[in-house]
Amino acid sequence: PAPSSPSRSSHGSRSSPRIVLFPSAGMGHLVPFTRLAVALSAGHGCDISLVTALPTVSSAESRHIAALYAAFPAIRQLDLRFAPFDASSEFPGADPFYLRYEALRRCAPSLLGPLLAGAGASALVVDMALASVAIPVARELHVPCFVFFTASATMLSFKAYFPTYLDDVGAGHGVGDVDVPGVYRIPSSSVPQALHDPDNIFTRQFVANGRALATADGLLVNAFHAMEPEAVEALQGRFVLSVLPPVFAVGPLMPVNDLRETGEAAQKQGNYRAWLDEQPPRPVVYVSFGSRKALPKDQIKELAAGLEACGHRFLWVVKGAVVDRDDAGELSELLGEAFLRRVQGRGLVTKSWVEQEEVLRHPAVALFVSHCGWNSVTEAVSSGVPVLAWPRFADQRVNASVVVRCGLGVWAEQWSWEGEEALVRAEEIAALVMEAMGDDAMAVKTANVREAASRAVVDGGTSYLCLAAFVHRCIAPR
Ligand code: UDP
Ligand code: UDP
């Protein structure tokens, strides 16, 4: 792969830092990076270049990037073209997004230097999945390197502490409960599944990146103090780890309205907007498990029966495969014609991408049954929609614990996640949805979290000040 040259030749001045943003793969990483790009470019007058690894893993990513450049021509495009990376023999059965992280990690040492020099970068912001390979390259060029953590502050504290935990327990011991200093105990059952296996591709990256955090010039996290006070204070006060660099809690980064799908992709999205508009205020349960994973087929059937039995209207985004390009099957194959007929009118089920941010802001939506990918959580916060948490994998149980602690929603902790066999039954799902839909106290608490988020991001708020402090560091690095 070779980086393309930036579209303009002027270099960043002292008053307008020239910042290169380098996300890794998957919408869960790309979306917060594009929000950061827009906040820095349009909001703080920075000169922003975004590194784009092509071809993207999913088509959702390529559409999102195209929409970003169309709406924000001031953001420069730095393309990294990829030869196919076949590591399936090295990591049999590995997740395609993790393989892409690995491919990026392997090419970063040789590619990143020329790319930064060509862009005249005054600072680099890399995704947490690339930290350990990117920081040494930036250091060599004397370019300050910041790590952007696209998940929760609680998860960042866990990640920063986890290598120390491993060193303390010693090799050969399983991962138990992890007491993150200054934060709280992450039970073994909430530790991302992969981390129980020291040889897993994800674990190797996670630990290498965790160790590298101390060598960054600063850490950005899409979180805000009022929602995760323990974690933000423990990170900023260096209780988690005494050697941590400054931590800038800049969230929740605001969604960018102009990035809607257009053309054929918009048509494929079908009629969910019209359907939502037809609903009276607040009867709809929105159900989505994010862009990364598909529920097992038998769990999809239980969820279908649960939604049918709960009696509420629902909008359900179903994924049948990990990567959207592979998801060709029909809805009726997954759910059965009879189910689709029975719920017609009351429930809308779709396999296509929906503009989730727009859905959550729609007055018809009252509850979000969510896997608790961190972006989904932050979007629920900004739109004030209570969450019924059903974490499935990776950091999602940690995020679900944040959801409960801050008052954003509820979590049935005994519900299974990937790797556990027990199915969550239709009756349990229906009962919890009904309870959450009738929980007025929860709706009030959720509204309070939204208020706190609004206060954090306006001029003078904690997140606003953190972002401004970060920009200042890029102008006048220490
Ligand atoms: N993560 C991390 N370092 C990495 C990769 C992932 O800290 O090198 C963390 C982070 O908390 C992230 C979680 O692991 O949110 C799951 O990451 P993954 O990329 O699997 O999931 P996604 O964010 O795409 O849902
Ligand atoms: N998303 C969306 N429409 C969909 C599925 C996902 O807009 O049909 C967006 C969602 O709003 C979020 C991102 O994709 O911004 C997914 O990130 P998240 O961290 O919630 O979960 P992941 O997909 O990484 O598991």
Automatic annotation (TrEMBL):
EC number: 2.4.1.-
Top-level lineage group: Eukaryota
InterPro entries, per database record: UDP-glycosyltransf_plant, UDP_glucos_trans, UDP_glycos_trans_CS
Enzyme class: transferase
Single GO term (MF): UDP-glucosyltransferase activity
Coiled coil start-end: none
Keyword Transferase: yes
Keywords annotated in UniProt: Glycosyltransferase, Transferase
Pfam families: UDPGT
Family listed: Belongs to the UDP-glycosyltransferase family.
Protein name in UniProt: Glycosyltransferase
